[in-house]
Design the sequence.
């Protein structure tokens, strides 16, 4: 068997055998293949796809390229999001679920392009350390039911390599490759239950529900074949989630939710829904009972306390919970009113807030990265005072921009107009939850 | 513009602009792109194709990645073959055409896998130097009307890189990429007329006539847009050409043709047809008149003399023309009779001689390469005493194997049975020339 035979076979539309897939991943693991052959194979997979069986074999090979953690009889559940704008849901969700006697062994990623990353957000808490060893991770899970860290070097070794290569070769948006990447990491980190927040719409990989359903089926089946009970929730990613985009801003918004100060809106709706789903699936209890546990955990401040324990345990400064000035602060804060952007009008409804564009705006204010090597400004970002369906007039404050770069503020201000669409007629606010695809519904 | 934008655009099926194609080739030329991004783009081109316009722009960019030779008002014509087994046609053809007052500025390649290469064949002549500088090449063309060399470093710089990468990434069989690779080299070497021998059948890139016609149209159109009058001849590549496969063996067969000792069969038919076509197109004379020039050039030994001048000029030993023992000699020569392979039978017709398999046999006897770095044995090869349609009996000598490796002789002997098909009923011998697609027939 040679690597080129495997490229040719997939290029010509044939299914790869388990042996061929193991060879492919093993050549990566042992550093016996050149990048340009792997990228050619990735592009062939992009075009020709992979069956469930091939995808399950690929996932398993990627898990086996590193260590698979086993938490034995500890109840575990994790959540994964396919990446959104303003998507800080993991921050309050993980302590909520952990405070309900379920271990949350969460390994997350960093932001790139228009999407933010949980690790970057956590690192806006002064001192917070996301780089635990695998042993530290395991013992913290046993002690605290909760750890929020970066993928350790032992986890899904081949995925790290493939993920970077896919990013550089336009082979990210492939259902089997997305499935294997997500599931190999989650299977390897040791969770036995998984809820996936699959974003659909502009600014998401999956542009429509049909594509998203296909991916959901792959994710659930591959989870099933590897002992991870997976539930997929399709959620709408047309406008940024909540009101904040940016690292410390999103942590502040998360703390506000844990304090009970946010009681409605998409961020609240999604966080409580996904948390309840995790609890319901893991404890095998009804959704309403699980939802009550979530509300009780917030109301009693047990979730906030769990978050405080997490910050302490991972060397962060817990004062951020009481005093937001402990976070890095942006030098420039610019308020933007509707009239600044849209001139004079009577009243209008917000029809569209382009999540993708807003992700890029936050990025250019300093909150994100264009290349992996870029450093980020934890204080930068955008506070958004409007949501789709809101009625505004020229004096409505719509945004505050936070940055340390005057020129970026000017540049973003110029572009905002194209990222917000107004309407004269009323716009109905829909739930962000499109559909939940249950583990049991997929044979 | 970034390279990844170009990959995405092609991946999603859009046409690349001239600027984008120039950027792509320029990034290669200036060493500003990583191999894995180029191979991803090549695979996307493999799947999504390129229009004539894109292909012409790609070819032009590849020509401009190096030097373009200009022979001004010298009449020039070259021949290119897409690669066959036993395909020594260039060896006698180039001196035939050059002896008819047409300059033949021929830059050729080396063999790989089942196909041989003109350079390797020429190097079986002791001392023969295929590595002229571009200046030496130009002055030899002016002096002798003939040079047969390897592509110099200045010619189509980007093609060398792309060709190697395509070979390693299964992106060879793409009509626009084949077109740009062939035509960029031929345009750059300075020929104004070109005849392409496009092989069709087993052991050829083009498996059927329809595909070959599509490639022919690309080749002719791209030639037209770049000032090279191109005629494409589709020829059948189902059995090896002529009777010899192997480097010195094919030179010997070529000398025999130039001496007038071979007067029929596919090798003779193809060589005289393609030579006459080159002369007819370049001098704008009728095909029959051109054919007479070819026959006269062979009969008068002017072509043989031109070949002798070429050998002398490029430091080869001209004694090979008179004494074939000057060539390297294989230690083992094994005759194979029909009964050795097929046991006892009365008489049968030869139905099939698998050119691809025979190419691999010659390779494993030492005549070819599996990797570019492999050295080759100029003495190794196969003499084939049968052609499709021949009637044989058990005592017919069918092959002689030449090698210095006993174990390869044994291995090949075992496999021959599967590469020759016999028939009880008569087989009609067809002309190897399927179709000639004229420059003027393509708008």
Sequence:
């Amino acid at each position: 068997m040679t690597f080129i035979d495997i490229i040719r076979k997939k290029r010509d539309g044939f299914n790869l055998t388990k042996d061929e897939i193991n060879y492919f991943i093993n050549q990566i693991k042992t550093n016996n293949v050149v990048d340009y052959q792997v990228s050619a194979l990735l592009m062939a997979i992009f075009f020709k796809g992979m069956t469930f069986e091939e995808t399950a074999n690929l996932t398993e090979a990627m898990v086996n390229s590193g260590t698979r953690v086993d938490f034995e009889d500890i109840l575990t559940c994790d959540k994964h999001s396919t990446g959104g704008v303003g998507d800080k849901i993991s921050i309050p969700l993980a302590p909520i679920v952990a405070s309900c006697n379920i271990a949350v062994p969460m390994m997350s990623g960093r932001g790139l392009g228009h999407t933010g990353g949980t690790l970057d957000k956590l690192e806006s808490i002064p001192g917070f350390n996301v780089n635990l060893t695998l042993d530290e991770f395991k013992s913290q899970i046993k002690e605290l039911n909760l750890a929020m860290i970066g993928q350790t070097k032992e986890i899904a070794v081949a995925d790290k390599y493939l993920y970077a290569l896919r990013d550089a070769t336009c082979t990210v948006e492939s259902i089997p490759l997305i499935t294997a990447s997500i599931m190999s990491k989650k299977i390897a980190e040791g969770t036995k239950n998984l809820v996936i927040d699959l974003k659909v719409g502009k600014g998401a990989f999956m542009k429509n529900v049909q594509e998203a359903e296909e991916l959901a089926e792959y994710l659930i089946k591959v989870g099933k074949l590897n002992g991870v009970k997976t539930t997929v929730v399709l959620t709408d990613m047309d406008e940024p989630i909540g009101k904040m985009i940016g690292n410390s801003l999103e942590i502040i918004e998360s703390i506000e939710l844990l304090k009970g100060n946010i009681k409605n809106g998409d961020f609240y709706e999604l966080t409580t829904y996904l948390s309840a789903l995790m609890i319901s699936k893991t404890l095998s209890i009804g959704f309403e009972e699980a939802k009550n546990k979530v509300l009780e955990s917030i109301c009693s401040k047990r979730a906030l306390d769990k978050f405080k324990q997490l910050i302490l345990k991972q060397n962060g400064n817990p004062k951020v919970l009481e005093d937001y000035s402990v976070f890095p602060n942006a030098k420039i804060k610019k308020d933007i009113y509707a009239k600044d952007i849209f001139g004079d009008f009577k009243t209008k409804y917000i029809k569209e807030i382009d999540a993708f564009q807003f992700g890029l705006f936050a990025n250019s204010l300093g909150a994100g990265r264009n290349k992996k090597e870029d450093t980020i400004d934890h204080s930068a970002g955008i506070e958004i005072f409007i949501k789709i369906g809101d009625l505004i007039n020229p004096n409505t404050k719509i945004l505050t921009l936070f940055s340390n770069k005057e020129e970026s503020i000017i540049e973003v201000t110029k572009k905002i107009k194209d990222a917000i669409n107004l309407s004269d007629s009323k716009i109905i606010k829909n739930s962000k939850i499109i559909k939940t695809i249950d583990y049991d519904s997929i044979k």
The mean pLDDT of chain B is 95.
